[in-house]
Each structure stands twice: as structure tokens, then as C-alpha cells.
Task: inverse folding
């Protein structure tokens, strides 16, 4: 019998493995205890964490500013609908049934601010844009900004687009299947392959059926770009349905994590993640900690984690934006999808999930190569927007795997999350997106308000 780790890890890596295991046991036990606590006790922990924070914080002031009120309102919004309502937009909710039986939530902004569509769930005659989130996220990440002019979906709605936002299976808006109970291992047995074979093409087809449009524009962030790269590469007919693919902070084959110890452990045997987290949802206790920690403290925890894992300092995102957005950052995802990413990092190739997990520990290596997504076959125009300080983007490697018609825009000083929530995205990112849509949107889609050159400042 092959033991994957023997002879492949150093002494300090074994120590980290054992220490990590005991930390997760401890964290799981604490989370379980917290779940059993009554709400008044949880509120007590929250209040005391706030008291401690203000006692040691030099920035604390008693009177809140208007900006702080906005951040609190965004942070406290319970769902996508409340976020849209805060900015004065009427949204629609739709449900897609994938071919393998998962029910996916779709959100739609069919009209401008203050307007209401008379016949919900029908065509608007406007050009259609579909936005898709990244790993461990849901559609709320697009609309949890503290300024409307920095909120891409709202800007696109004001520009005259019919805006749709998708959700991956398993997350807050898609935790249901007609075949499997969400508490079962079978429900969470999915990887990037399943997003590519089902979630993305089935969501796109549903949107086109409702809007009566022949094609739509796709805007993805992070893993949302990887899902589109994969889907367009294995579904040739899907390329006819996407008139342009705009990839924000594109992800295809990251080189690895900034933390050498964690990176080495996971690359040595990606299936170690199964040992740590099981085979259902990963980091499911994150919302528990969010409930008991005062927002600035929770924000510091997230910042520290991102700095440790990815070497991001997130200085382009304001503190108030972090407090507002980090409350909407996390959503459930399968452990298997994370294992898939570490397989990709280990092999340095944008490949399909390797089901023969035992092969990673074989002394003689594998007798086969896992199938790779044929991304050079993508016909849809591709526009990449990446930050030159994003540790997850190797732009030169990516361009080698993409067709020649791919265009690239470098965002100076930008990290990964900056492209979503940065303080200057209304100047650096959103105009690039609108220009790409203007260039590639087919005339048969309509003419969205002649694509206004300036962006309207939205007043509340």
C-alpha cells in the first residue's frame, strides 16, 4: 500500500501537518459549542469584542460619519435583495435546473434605479450581461460596494444593460439538488469540471431563453473566469452564445500560495485537504466566527489571512469598504473544488480533476496525464484585466494557453480583490469593462443608451 506523504515531506512539514490537524479539531469543537449557545450569549461575545476593540483602537470616534452609516447598512444587508433595495434597484430572482439536477439561483437587474419592470421574467430588448463570482463567493460580492458609481452591476444597469449574476452550486443561493441532500457527501462531490460542464452553460442558456437574445456578454471574476475558460473550451457551441468574455483577475493556473509551508504541503499531496476538511463544504465555520466578532476585528482576521496565504496587503480597499464587503465575502464551496485547484497548481496546468488521487503518492509517478481544458480552441473574444501585484495571476503563462485574439489590460498596483472593491475601480476597471462591451456587443442586442462616456454619480 502506498503512503502518499512518507519520503516526500520534511520534518517541519510533518510538524505543520500535525499542528494543523489539531488546530482544525480545536476550531471545529469551538464552532460546535458556539452553535449550541443561545443568542444572548453570542451577543455578549460580540459586545465584548467591540468593547475591547474600541479600548485599544486609536481610530475610534463616538459619532458615526455618513460613510460609516453606508458601510453599516451594506454590511447588515441580509441578502442580495436588501443590497439592491438599499441603492434603489428592483431585482428579480430566477432558478436554473442543471442537467445533473442542481438548482442554481440567478439574480437580475433588468431596469435602472427607481424603475420597475412591468412583466418580470420576460425580455427587455436590452443587451444582456452575465456576471459570475469567484471561489467561496456568491452574487452579493458584485453589489456590496459603498459607492454606487464603483458598483459594476449598477453602472451597467444605468448604461442600459440587462444585468444577470450567477451562483455556483452549493453556495448561499444554490444549496439544493433534486437528487442529493445538501448534508450528504454526494451533494458536495463536484469540482471545476461540473461548473464547466453544467453550471455555466446551463445558466447562460436559461438567460438567453428568458431574454430572447441570441448572445450575451460574460464578465467573470477570479474562479468565475476559470469556469468560463473551461466551459468555452469544451462546449464549442457555447462560443456562439457569448459575444465577449471579460476576465477580471483571471485565474487559470496559479503558481501557488505565498505561505511556503502551506503551499508545499498542499502541492505534495492535494488530497491532504480531504484529511483536514472532509468531503463536504470547506470552511463552513466562517460564518460562525463572523457572528461573534466585532466587524473591524473580523476584517483584521480576514486581512491577516489574505496576507499570509497570498501576500496581499489590500491597501487599495478602504477600511469601510472591507467592513461592508467582508460580511458578504464568504459562501460555501466544496472541498473537492479546492482540491482541484491544488492539483492544477501542483501540475502547473489547467486540467480537469484527477480522480486517481492515489497517483500523487506513487513512487514511479503516473502512467497517464489528466485531461486538460483545450483553452486555445476558444473562439469568443477574450479581454483580460489583471493586477500586476496579483500573486494568483501568471499572465505570461496564461497567454501561452489562450488564443491569439486575446487582449490584455494591466492594472498597475492592483491586487486580486482590488478589482472588485478597490477605491478607484470607477476610473480604472469599470470604463475598461464598458468599453469592451461597447466594442464587442452585437448590434442585434440593441444600443444601450449609446454607451454614455461619463458615469452618472448616483445620489441617494
Result:
Amino acid at each position: 500500500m502506498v503512503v502518499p506523504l512518507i519520503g516526500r515531506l520534511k520534518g517541519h512539514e510533518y510538524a505543520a501537518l500535525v499542528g494543523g490537524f489539531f488546530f482544525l479539531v480545536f476550531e471545529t469543537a469551538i464552532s460546535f459549542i458556539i452553535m449550541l449557545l443561545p443568542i444572548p450569549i453570542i451577543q455578549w461575545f460580540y459586545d465584548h469584542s467591540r468593547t475591547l476593540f474600541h479600548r485599544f483602537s486609536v481610530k475610534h470616534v463616538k459619532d458615526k460619519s455618513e460613510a460609516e452609516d453606508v458601510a453599516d447598512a451594506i454590511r447588515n444587508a441580509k441578502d442580495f435583495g436588501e443590497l439592491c433595495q438599499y441603492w434603489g434597484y428592483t431585482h428579480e430572482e430566477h432558478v436554473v435546473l442543471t442537467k445533473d439536477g442542481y438548482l442554481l439561483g440567478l439574480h437580475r437587474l433588468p431596469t435602472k434605479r427607481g424603475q420597475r419592470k412591468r412583466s418580470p421574467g420576460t425580455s427587455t430588448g436590452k443587451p444582456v450581461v452575465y456576471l459570475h463570482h469567484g471561489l467561496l463567493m456568491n452574487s452579493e460580492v458584485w453589489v456590496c460596494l459603498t459607492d454606487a458609481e464603483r458598483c459594476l452591476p449598477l453602472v451597467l444597469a444605468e448604461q442600459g444593460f440587462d444585468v444577470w449574476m450567477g451562483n455556483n452550486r452549493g453556495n448561499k443561493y444554490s444549496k439544493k439538488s433534486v437528487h442529493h441532500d445538501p448534508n450528504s457527501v454526494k451533494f458536495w462531490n463536484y469540482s471545476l469540471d461540473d461548473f464547466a460542464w453544467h453550471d455555466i452553460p446551463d445558466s447562460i442558456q436559461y438567460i438567453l431563453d428568458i431574454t430572447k437574445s441570441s448572445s450575451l456578454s460574460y464578465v467573470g471574476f477570479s474562479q468565475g473566469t476559470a469556469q468560463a475558460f473551461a466551459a468555452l473550451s469544451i462546449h464549442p457551441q457555447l462560443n456562439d452564445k457569448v459575444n465577449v468574455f471579460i476576465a477580471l483577475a483571471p485565474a487559470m493556473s496559479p503558481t501557488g500560495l505565498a505561505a511556503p509551508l502551506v503551499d508545499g504541503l498542499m502541492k505534495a499531496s492535494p488530497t491532504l485537504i480531504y484529511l483536514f476538511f472532509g468531503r463536504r463544504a470547506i470552511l463552513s465555520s466562517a460564518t460562525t466566527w463572523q457572528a461573534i466578532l466585532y466587524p473591524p476585528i473580523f476584517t483584521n482576521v480576514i486581512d491577516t489571512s489574505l496576507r499570509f496565504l497570498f501576500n496581499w496587503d489590500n491597501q487599495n480597499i478602504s477600511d469601510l469598504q472591507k467592513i461592508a464587503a467582508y460580511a458578504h465575502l464568504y459562501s460555501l464551496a466544496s472541498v473537492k473544488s479546492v482540491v482541484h485547484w491544488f492539483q492544477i497548481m501542483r501540475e502547473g496546468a489547467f486540467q480537469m480533476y484527477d480522480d486517481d488521487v492515489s497517483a500523487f503518492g506513487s513512487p514511479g509517478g503516473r502512467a497517464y496525464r489528466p485531461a486538460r481544458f483545450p483553452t486555445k480552441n476558444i473562439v469568443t473574444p477574450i479581454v483580460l484585466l489583471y493586477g500586476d501585484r496579483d500573486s494568483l495571476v501568471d499572465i505570461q503563462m496564461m497567454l501561452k494557453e489562450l488564443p491569439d485574439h486575446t487582449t490584455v489590460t494591466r492594472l498597475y498596483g492592483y491586487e486580486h480583490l482590488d478589482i472588485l472593491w478597490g477605491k478607484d475601480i470607477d476610473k480604472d476597471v469599470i470604463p475598461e469593462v464598458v468599453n469592451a462591451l461597447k466594442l464587442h456587443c452585437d448590434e442585434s442586442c440593441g444600443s444601450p443608451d449609446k454607451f454614455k462616456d461619463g458615469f452618472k454619480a448616483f445620489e441617494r
